[in-house]
Amino acid sequence: MSRVTKALEMVVGAYELGQYDSNVIGMAAEVIAEEEFGMKKAPRGMKDVDGTWFRDGRDHTVQVKAWSEDRVKTYRQFTYFRLRENALPDVLLCILVYCSKPGYEIIYNGSPRDVGYVEKNGRDRVIRFSHMRTPEEVASILRGLGVEEKVVRPRRPNASRDPKAPVVESDSRKPCSICGVSFPVEEFHYGGRTTNSYCTSCCKLHRQAYNRGGSEGTRLFREEMRKNWKN
């Protein structure tokens, strides 16, 4: 049995025991990076870099980001992570790891500078699922997870016609109090109000969380989203 197969079966076994922390997901993703892409793992505790691999005559630093099946099913095209802009690796490898069955999907394998956008503070780069794949590809992956949802292209205020061009923040922006991402103020104009604190995307997900679990569902949704950027 290969290391990748063992790691993926561990993920499924852990999921069957209940929803705990995501360390096993990250472990599986790093094993995939090692076995399938030849990544040499960095020393434990090294920040912003998970390893290196040799390409085009030189070593490239690699950061591996792992998403669980449940996470993507919950946050869909808005699933995201942050990278420190002043410590970007040469290569970003984002992997969706399945929990209901042994398996995975490569969401992105390339330069982190080609996707996402830099927040106005200049410190963090925010990268969403919809930044790394086309709307059609996102919709296809979601359908494979049993999620039927119309996927729209993300708003890219200063992007060129290149769909992978990075987005640079402009003036007149404010952060969403749920996801922590900074958007143009127009993103908060809805429902007859212009001072909403949730962006339109999070507002929609907030309503869906309420429909699934009432007030407790929305509380858990807010806590899960906020711990990604407040911790």
Description:
Residues 154-170 have low confidence and may be disordered. The strands form 3 sheets. This protein has a 5-stranded mixed β-sheet. It has 2 domains: 3-168, no CATH class; 171-231, no CATH class. A hairpin with a 6-residue loop joins strand 10 and strand 11 (182-184). The chain has helices at 3-17, 23-37, 69-75, 129-132, 135-144, 200-230; strands spanning 40-41, 51-55, 58-68, 80-84, 91-97, 104-110, 117-118, 124-128, 167-168, 173-175, 182-184. The longest helix has 31 residues, at 200-230. The chain is α+β, with helices and mostly antiparallel strands and 231 residues long. Helix 1 (3-17) runs antiparallel to helix 2. The chain is built from 6 helices and 11 strands. It is 35% helix and 23% strand.
Distance between the amino and carboxyl termini: 37 Å
Helical content class: 25-40%
Unreliable residue runs: 154-170
* Secondary structure tally, helices: 6
Please indicate the count of domains. 2
Structure class: alpha+beta
Q: In which order are the strands of the major sheet placed?
A: 1-2-3-5-6
User: What is the C-alpha radius of gyration, as a whole number of Å?
Assistant: 18 Å
Write down the secondary-structure element order: HHEEEHEEEEEHHEEEH
Average pLDDT confidence is: 84
- Give the overall silhouette: globular
User: In total, how many beta strands?
Assistant: 11
Strand content: 15-25%
Largest sheet: 5 strands, mixed
